[in-house]
Amino acid sequence: MQINSLLNRIELYKIFPKNAVGAELGVQYGHNAQFLYKLTEPKKLYLVDPWELPPEGTGKLIFNCVKASFQHCPEVEVIRAYDWDWIETIPDEHLDWVYLDSSHLYHNTKREVTAILPKIKRGGILAGHDFCTNPWWKTGVMRPILDAVQAGQIRITTLTEEAFPSYYTEVL
Ligand SMILES: C[S@@+](CC[C@H](N)C(=O)[O-])C[C@H]1O[C@@H](n2cnc3c(N)ncnc32)[C@H](O)[C@@H]1O
């Protein structure tokens, strides 16, 4: 099966399942979360980030701002935690889709991919940002995703054409 190509991640979000249960892991200021929310029209959306930015107090401030920006959206739950800790609390096959955009470091991404896959329904979506190498995270995003492809756990169906591409994979 050929891999599709889309202009950017905004176009990608339009093919995410609607009225579904999704999660963004790595939220930062919540800019991307707004697009995910508007374009996927989720039944439930989890936004997970530890918000541990220095200096002291900054993380809490940003967490509160993100929470405030979704205060009128009852489907959205903003969770201040490391994603691997939150992942342990949810049942298997609970999620229809995930957008992973956290530290990008190899050991962290490997840990996240390993932990999240059983939590996504078969036929569901594991997507994420920055499917490219970079002096900062090196092969930290591409390798764990391609490891999972090679292990037959996921199949890449779509990539985006940006300098910092997103990937979209089906959970097998
Ligand atoms: C690149 S930013 C996310 C940007 C956001 N997705 C966007 O496009 O607007 C990376 C975020 O990942 C968060 N992060 C790092 N490690 C994490 C982890 N283990 N679990 C969840 N979030 C994490 C950082 O706190 C940071 O806010």
- CATH H-level name... which superfamily? Vaccinia Virus protein VP39
The domain count comes to 1
Tally of contiguous helical segments: 6
> What summary fits the major beta sheet?
8 strands, mixed
Question: Mind telling me the C-alpha Rg?
Answer: 15 Å
Examine the coordinates and then state which fold CATH places here, giving the name of the CATH topology.
Rossmann fold
Q: Quick one: overall form?
A: globular
* β-strand number: 8
Structural class determined from secondary elements: alpha/beta
Give the CA-CA distance, first to last residue. 14 Å
Order of helices and strands: EHEHEHEHEHEHEE
Can you name the CATH architecture?
Answer: 3-Layer(aba) Sandwich
Task: Assess the beta-strand content as a share of residues.
Answer: 25-35%
Main-sheet strand order equals 1-7-8-6-5-2-3-4
- Return the CATH class: Alpha Beta
Unreliably modeled segments:
none
- Look at the structure and give the mean pLDDT: 97
Helix content: 25-40%
Structure report:
- By secondary structure, the protein is of the alpha/beta class.
- The chain has a single domain (4-171), classed as Vaccinia Virus protein VP39 (Rossmann fold), CATH 3.40.50.150.
- It is 30% helix and 27% strand.
- α5 (106-116) crosses α6.
- The two termini are 14 Å apart.
- The structure holds S-adenosylmethionine.
- S-adenosylmethionine (SAM) binds next to α2 and β3.
Write the layout of secondary structure elements.
Layout: E1 4-6, H1 9-13, E2 21-25, H2 31-40, E3 44-49, H3 58-69, E4 76-80, H4 83-87, E5 95-100, H5 106-116, E6 120-128, H6 142-150, E7 154-160, E8 167-171
Parallel strand pairs: 1-7, 2-3, 2-5, 3-4, 5-6
Antiparallel strand pairs: 6-8, 7-8
Helix pairs in contact: 5-6
Bound molecules: S-adenosylmethionine.
